[in-house]
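Troubleshooting log. The previous structure file for this entry was overwritten by mistake, so regenerating from the original sequence record. Sequence copied from the archived sheet and checked twice against the printout by T.R.
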Amino acid sequence: MRIENLDDVAEFARTVIRNGVNLHPDDDFRNYVNLETGQQTYTEEEASAHNRDMVNAFSICEKCGVDIYGFMQKIMLVETGLDRLIPMPE
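Regenerated output below.
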């Protein structure tokens, strides 16, 4: 995935969340584990690619003056439906 702007950052986050991952920007994708199977969520290659994408996401957010944590939290809340229960960050 190419991450070149905030829309790309949002799509990256949505894609990861839709795959059932409780995404946090600081987490290494190698550490995500499927709770049902106990197996790693991503292969080494997938994790490396997602880690590179996250580095790019941090860079884009920084260039745009956007807090990546709040930005991705909003996406997480909407994608999971938790925005109906948890107030959106500012």
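The longest helix spans residues 44-64. Archived copy saved in two places this time.
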